[in-house]
């Protein structure tokens, strides 16, 4: 472990401060009793958290977002694992095309995707369908999963799989007992990033959610266009809290550096 | 009848033949090494025995059964990979147990068999560790235990010692041989290291550009290399191009750039172009003016148990090795005589493409 010099230490502290300060401010504002966003404040209050739970549409949107993120992240992983294995390991016609196709949603603005999806949903008569919303989210989160998986598979020593074959394992067993556990950091990391991206997505979702499928970011956006009060901060604080707990849990159970850096 | 048989095995990639017409029989319990420089096809040959690469033509038979097109996971062979290829997410015990599980060995039998295998490689105390917590040598042993625990008919070793440091490599060589003797498994090892191949094999198969050029016992390959390539690849050697000048019943005289040298006759006739091959340790250094050729010490290298001399003389620079008997070595510039017994000179027909620089042969 190398120690930071004083200048590096100051620089790193400033970067961390710059990244965390807005989050800290939002969380602080959530606990104010005022009717408007204001700091400094007179005291502490939980009234805005209470207000959130008195808005059933917010609670409904929270569950929508949670299910949407769980489903789209999981399905994206199921889709990306075989795709990443094929693209990384085999030479075949259309390999480059397939790779580009999977990554292309990264470079298409979500606004454009939103308009396109809106049109598509209208064409197939799927407006307002939760299933199609999940499909749209799979499109935008798959590139992240692909990137992490390709990174995990690229450094993979194939002879480990050959060793398992030679000991009598079937192809399915080799995948389940050897390949999958060895790329698990990539799988978990990809799932986590996909989950966060889906849970967070606003721009595209504005176009393709219906009143019954409104996600939390869209609900917040709609609310914020009408009134800005500390309830927004309270919702944000809840999201920050949930994310932090999830990440901490993952770190405890698995080790974040293993997932995001890919160490064994 | 031999136990493992390769018959006219060829593997082509497009127009390129990685392996051409390899025919080899290995007896039960034998330790055979495939020796050659990188790219000579030895690893491809091993992979075809293992079932990871399918031969373009030819047959592989194991104990009389044709396994040429059998799947790798139905052959039941034990393989030790150069990278060890341990399962990083499993403990040493689980690594070794994996094969038993795949072979559907009854649960009660697994533990004693894993323990027996770990005992054999002296790792009984490490069963609960993960591969990342082991040293290179220990990982190597786990890989070996994992391969032999399934009691394979044939053990395949792919450059098993090349990732170990020199000292450990030597110790593991003897241990590998010892373990192989104990379990009696027929073994095929691939290596580019001739010392490794020679010290532990019953027979060595020398390969060159996808073909087998010689199969023999290690000392026979060293003493009677069949091609000039082998005499250069295996150990150090002095190669001297010349022309046969005179032949009688017992001896022939070869002119090496005007210097006449007498050798055992063989089937040579006058006018043949030949290359003589003399191992450095077969050259004796005598006092100046004695011996067959005069020379002068150009350079000397201390190898611990031996001295390696480069001797300038009428034939160019020759290498000579003498045991370090404790007496003072010759100084550079000192005049010497070179002597040898005619029977130690090997003769290859034909001339070298270019006369080799002995300093390049020294490595």
TrEMBL record, chain A:
Recorded superkingdom: Bacteria
Domain ABC transmembrane type-1, residue spans: 62-250
GO biological process: one example: transmembrane transport
Keywords: Cell inner membrane, Cell membrane, Membrane, Transmembrane, Transmembrane helix, Transport
Main location: membrane
Subcellular location field: Cell inner membrane; Cell membrane
Segments passing through the bilayer: 7-31, 66-88, 100-124, 130-153, 174-196, 231-250
GO cellular component: plasma membrane
Record bears the keyword Transmembrane: yes
Membrane topology (UniProt): Multi-pass membrane protein
Family, similarity comment: Belongs to the binding-protein-dependent transport system permease family.
PANTHER family cross-referenced by the UniProt entry: INNER MEMBRANE ABC TRANSPORTER PERMEASE PROTEIN YDCV
Listed name of the protein: ABC transporter permease
Record organism: Azospirillum griseum
TrEMBL record, chain B:
SMART domains linked: AAA
GO molecular function: ATP binding; ATP hydrolysis activity; transmembrane transporter activity
Cited SUPFAM superfamilies: MOP-like (SSF50331), P-loop containing nucleoside triphosphate hydrolases (SSF52540)
Biological processes, Gene Ontology terms: quaternary ammonium group transport
ABC transporter domain residues: 4-234
Entry keyword annotation includes Membrane: no
Alphabetic keyword roster: ATP-binding, Nucleotide-binding, Transport
GO cellular component, one term: ATP-binding cassette (ABC) transporter complex
UniProt name for this protein: ABC transporter ATP-binding protein
Organism: Azospirillum griseum
């Amino acid at each position: 472990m190398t120690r930071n010099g004083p200048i590096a230490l100051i620089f790193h502290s400033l970067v961390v401060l710059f990244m965390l300060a807005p989050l800290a401010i939002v969380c602080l504002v959530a606990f104010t009793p005022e009717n408007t966003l204001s700091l400094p404040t007179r005291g502490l209050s939980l009234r805005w958290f209470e207000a959130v739970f008195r808005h059933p549409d917010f609670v409904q949107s929270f569950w929508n977002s949670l299910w949407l993120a769980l489903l789209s992240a999981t399905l994206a992983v199921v889709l990306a694992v075989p795709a990443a294995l094929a693209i990384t390991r085999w030479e075949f016609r259309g390999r480059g095309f397939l790779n580009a196709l999977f990554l292309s949603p990264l470079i298409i603005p979500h606004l454009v995707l939103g308009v396109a999806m809106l049109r598509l949903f209208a064409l197939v008569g799927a407006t307002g369908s939760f299933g199609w919303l999940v499909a749209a989210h799979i499109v935008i989160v798959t590139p992240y999963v692909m990137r992490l998986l390709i990174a995990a598979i690229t450094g993979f020593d194939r002879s480990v799989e050959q060793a398992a074959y030679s000991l009598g394992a079937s192809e399915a067993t080799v995948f389940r007992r050897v390949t999958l556990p060895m790329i698990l950091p990539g799988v978990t990391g990809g799932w986590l990033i996909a989950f966060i991206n889906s849970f967070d997505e606003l721009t595209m979702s504005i176009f393709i959610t219906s009143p019954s499928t409104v996600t939390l970011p869209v609900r917040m956006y709609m609310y914020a266009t009408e009134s800005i009060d500390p309830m927004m901060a309270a919702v944000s604080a809840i999201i920050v809290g949930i994310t932090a707990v999830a990440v901490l849990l993952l770190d405890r159970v698995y080790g974040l550096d293993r997932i995001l850096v890919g160490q064994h | 009848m031999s136990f493992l048989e390769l018959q006219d095995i060829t593997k082509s990639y497009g127009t390129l033949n990685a392996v051409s017409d390899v025919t080899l029989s290995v007896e039960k319990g034998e330790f055979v090494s495939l020796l050659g420089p990188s790219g000579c096809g030895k690893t491809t040959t091993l992979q075809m025995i293992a079932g990871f690469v399918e031969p373009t033509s030819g047959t592989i038979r194991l104990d009389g059964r044709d396994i040429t097109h059998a799947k790798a996971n139905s052959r039941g062979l034990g393989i030790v990979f150069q990278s060890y290829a341990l399962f990083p997410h499993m403990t040493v015990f689980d690594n070794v147990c994996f094969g038993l599980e795949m072979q559907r060995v009854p649960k009660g039998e697994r533990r004693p068999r894993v323990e027996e295998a770990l005992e054999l490689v002296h790792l009984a105390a490490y069963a609960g560790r993960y591969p990342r917590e082991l040293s290179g040598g220990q990982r190597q042993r786990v890989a070996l235990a994992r391969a032999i625990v399934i009691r394979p008919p044939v053990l395949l070793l792919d450059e098993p010692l090349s990732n170990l440091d020199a000292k450990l490599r030597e110790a593991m060589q003897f241990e590998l041989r010892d373990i192989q003797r104990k379990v009696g498994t027929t073994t095929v090892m691939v290596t580019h290291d001739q010392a490794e191949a020679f010290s532990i094999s019953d027979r060595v198969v020398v390969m060159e550009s996808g073909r087998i050029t010689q199969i023999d016992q290690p000392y026979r390959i060293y003493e009677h290399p069949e091609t000039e390539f082998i005499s250069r690849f295996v150990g150090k050697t002095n190669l001297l191009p010349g022309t046969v000048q005179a032949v009688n019943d017992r001896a022939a005289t070869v002119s090496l750039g005007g210097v006449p040298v007498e050798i055992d006759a063989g089937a040579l006739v006058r006018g043949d172009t030949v290359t003589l091959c003399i191992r450095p340790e077969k050259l004796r250094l005598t006092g100046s003016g004695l011996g067959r050729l005069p020379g002068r010490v150009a350079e000397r290298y201390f190898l611990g148990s031996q001295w390696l001399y480069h001797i300038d003389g009428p034939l160019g620079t020759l290498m000579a090795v003498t045991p370090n008997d404790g007496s003072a070595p010759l100084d550079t510039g000192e005049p010497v005589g070179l002597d040898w017994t005619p029977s130690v000179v090997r003769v290859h027909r034909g001339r070298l493409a270019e006369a080799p620089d002995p300093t390049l042969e020294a490595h």
